[in-house]
Inverse folding.
C-alpha cells in the first residue's frame, strides 16, 4: 500500500487523534481547576478520560457531525442546488437506474461483489453509507444522553436537587440546549459550503469546481 494514495484519510485520522488527545488534557486542566476551587482532589488523566464529563463532550460533537452527514447524504439524493459542485445537476434527482449505478446485470467485472448480488445484499450495499452514518449518529446520541444524565445528576446532587432518569433527561432543556447548539452549527456549515461553492473557487480542490466553470453549472460533464 502506498501511503500517498491514502494521504487524505490518514492525515485527517492523525489530526483527529491529536485534537482528541489535546482536548483530553485541556479538559483535565479545566476540571482540576474546578476541583481545586471546591477543595476537592485533582483527577488523573485516566480518571478524566473515562468520566462522563469527557464522554459527554466527545459524544455530543460526534453525534452532530454524523447527523450532518446523514442529512446531507439523504438531501443530495432528492434535492439539487444549481451551480454547486456539492449537488447533482437539476434533473438528476432520485436514486438513479441500475444502469447508472452499475448494479446487478449492469455491474462491471471490477464492481464490488454486493453490487452484483440480488435481494437484500444489494439493497444494503446500495444504502450502506447512509446506514452507517445513521447508526453512528444514533449510538453517539445515545452515549451523549447516558453520559449527560450522569453529569447532570451529579450537579443536581451538589445543589440538593432531585435526579432525573435517562428518559426525563432526554426531554430536558439542558439536553436539548447542548444538542441544538451543535446541530445548528453543523447545518450552517453545510449550507454555507453548498452556497459559497456556487460562486467561489479553490484551485485543485475536489470540493470546488474548476476556476473557470460558470457559476450556474452544478457539475462538470465529461467532454
Amino acid at each position: 500500500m502506498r501511503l500517498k494514495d491514502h494521504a487524505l484519510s490518514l492525515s485527517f485520522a492523525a489530526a483527529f487523534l491529536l485534537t482528541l488527545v489535546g482536548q483530553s488534557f485541556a479538559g483535565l486542566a479545566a476540571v482540576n481547576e474546578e476541583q481545586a476551587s471546591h477543595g476537592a482532589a485533582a483527577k488523573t488523566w485516566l480518571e478524566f478520560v473515562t468520566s462522563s464529563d469527557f464522554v459527554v463532550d466527545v459524544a455530543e460533537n460526534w453525534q452532530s457531525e454524523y447527523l450532518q452527514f446523514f442529512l446531507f447524504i439523504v438531501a443530495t439524493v432528492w434535492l439539487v442546488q444549481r451551480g454547486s459542485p456539492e449537488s447533482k445537476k437539476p434533473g438528476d434527482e432520485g436514486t438513479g437506474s441500475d444502469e447508472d449505478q452499475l448494479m446487478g446485470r449492469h455491474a462491471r467485472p471490477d464492481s464490488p461483489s454486493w453490487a452484483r448480488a440480488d435481494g437484500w445484499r444489494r439493497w444494503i450495499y446500495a444504502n450502506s453509507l447512509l446506514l452507517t452514518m445513521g447508526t453512528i449518529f444514533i449510538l453517539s446520541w445515545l452515549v451523549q444522553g447516558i453520559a449527560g444524565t450522569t453529569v447532570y445528576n451529579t450537579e443536581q446532587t451538589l445543589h440538593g436537587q432531585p435526579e432525573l432518569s435517562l428518559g426525563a433527561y432526554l426531554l430536558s432543556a439542558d439536553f436539548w440546549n447542548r444538542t441544538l447548539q451543535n446541530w445548528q452549527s453543523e447545518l450552517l456549515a453545510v449550507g454555507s459550503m453548498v452556497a459559497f461553492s456556487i460562486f467561489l473557487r479553490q484551485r485543485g480542490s475536489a470540493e470546488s469546481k474548476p476556476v473557470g466553470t460558470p457559476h450556474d453549472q452544478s457539475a462538470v460533464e465529461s467532454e
